[in-house]
Design a protein that fits this description.
- By secondary structure, the protein is α/β, with parallel strands linked by helices.
- It has 14 helices and 16 strands.
- The chain folds into 2 domains: about 150 residues, 3-Layer(aba) Sandwich (Rossmann fold), CATH 3.40.50.720; about 180 residues, Dihydrodipicolinate Reductase, domain 2, CATH 3.30.360.
- The protein has a 7-stranded parallel sheet with strand order 3-2-1-4-5-6-15, sandwiched between helices.
- α4 links the parallel β4 and β5.
- The protein starts with a strand and ends with a strand.
- The chain binds NADP nicotinamide-adenine-dinucleotide phosphate.
- NADP nicotinamide-adenine-dinucleotide phosphate binds next to α1, α4, α8 and α13.
- InterPro entries: NAD(P)-bd_dom_sf, Sacchrp_dh_NADP-bd.
- Pfam families: Sacchrp_dh_NADP (PF03435).
- This is Saccharopine dehydrogenase NADP-binding domain-containing protein.
Length: about 350
């Protein structure tokens, strides 16, 4: 894989991806805003490294010059995706990231024509969020092309990294989101629950603003989409609290305080914890016109391991020129079965 640049390479997930890339015999360029961290990792892995922050477009363009594909692992992506996408289009560099943030997907989608004109691919969401769910959505749509409603539910065990925690905290004050009649609609956080049979048992799941509220619509054009998560009670209560405390939680000083606490108290899951983790994703497509329903289940390994495998597989295809240009979703570009190429992933139709 020639000329892949990994931005945010010394973060928890970026480093996992960089190390796995080396294990697979690739030589990505490592990048990030902290010179010491990025050059140290580059020296350890014997890779080229570049240090730049995202405050100046000229600088970003200069560092992307000659790069085929950038894989952005620096989140929250609300802060990093826009400047990198803008520079990627200008320098004719393909752009991938591992976001799950709905506004980031929506803004990236608005760059479709500019990306097509430049001949580049813009594909956010090449990690656990949203590769498995996007592929499951496409599969359900293939099974029931007249579907008007799509519901997805995720049940996962395993740990969570500092960056994921910070990104989730940023979203707490934003409430929930659903797709209704083709439109994104804000709803109170944590307000809807339902019971889902994951094959090994039933769980109560809570509506959650997962990236598919944006991406599954681009992939399938199914106009009504809900995503649910099996959440521990404190997380459900925190989502509900976000409805009333939203402005307070979103305030800069409060976010800084919460992020400092995360830095002190949260570390990403260990390799052993990841090896023990498992995820089940349930999906349901329903056609209002014919009253037909289709259900499928997808089982995956730990979300971070899926993120590493999916991001590297998509980066390899993109560098090889196999990704369509313009704004793309993973299943839109590579089909519903792409996720089955990842070790440990299996699918079952009910
Ligand atoms: N799609 C998925 O399924 C999936 C999977 C894993 C992670 N993620 C997301 O990926 C992001 C990173 O997660 P992580 O676990 O790797 O977090 P992490 O360990 O906290 O690493 C975050 C990285 O991003 C960099 N960064 C943050 N803000 C930046 C900015 N404004 N400009 C430049 N660099 C910036 C950090 O650099 P500094 O240390 O210098 O701040 C660090 O290198 C999170 O948003 C997380 O939610 C998504």
């Amino acid at each position: 894989m020639d000329s892949l640049l990994i931005y945010g390479a010394y973060g928890y997930t970026g480093e996992l991806i960089a190390r796995e890339a080396v294990d697979r015999g690739h030589e990505p360029i490592l990048a990030g805003r902290d010179a010491t961290s990025v050059h140290q990792l580059g020296a350890e892995l014997d890779l080229r490294s570049r240090s730049f922050d995202l405050s100046d477009q000229d600088t970003i363009r200069e560092y992307l010059d000659g790069v085929d594909t950038i894989l952005n692992c620096a989140g929250p992506f609300e802060e990093t995706a826009d400047p990198l996408i803008e520079a990627a289009i200008e320098t004719q560099t393909h752009y991938l990231d591992i976001t799950g943030e709905i506004p980031v997907f929506e803004r990236a989608a608005r760059q479709h024509e500019a990306a097509e004109t430049a001949g580049v691919t813009i594909m956010p969401g090449v990690g656990f969020d949203v590769v498995p769910t996007d592929c499951l959505s496409a599969h359900l749509h293939d099974r029931l092309p007249s579907a008007t409603h799509l519901s997805l539910a995720i049940s996962a065990t395993g740990g969570i990294s500092p960056g994921t925690t910070k990104t989730a905290l940023r979203g707490l004050g934003d409430g929930g989101a659903i797709r209704e009649d083709g439109q994104l609609r804000a709803v109170p956080g944590g307000d809807r629950t339902r019971t889902v049979d994951f094959g090994w048992g039933s769980q109560t799941v809570t509506a959650f603003p997962w990236g598919d509220i944006s991406t599954a619509y681009h992939t399938t054009k199914i106009p009504n989409i809900h995503v649910y998560m099996a959440l521990p009670k404190p997380a459900r209560l925190a989502m509900r609290a976000g409805n009333t405390l939203g402005p307070l939680l979103s305030a800069g000083p409060v976010q800084s305080l919460l992020e400092a606490v995360v830095d002190r108290t949260v570390s990403g899951p260990t390799a052993e914890e990841r090896a023990a983790a498992a995820v089940t994703i349930w999906g349901e497509a329903w056609s209002e016109e014919t009253n037909e329903t289709a259900h499928s289940l997808l089982s995956t390994p730990d979300p971070y391991d899926v993120t590493v495998a999916a991001a590297l597989a998509i980066a390899a295809r993109t560098v090889a020129g196999e990704a369509p240009t313009g704004y793309q979703t993973p299943a839109g570009a590579f089909g519903a079965d792409f996720v089955l190429e990842i070790d440990g992933v299996s699918r079952r139709d009910l």
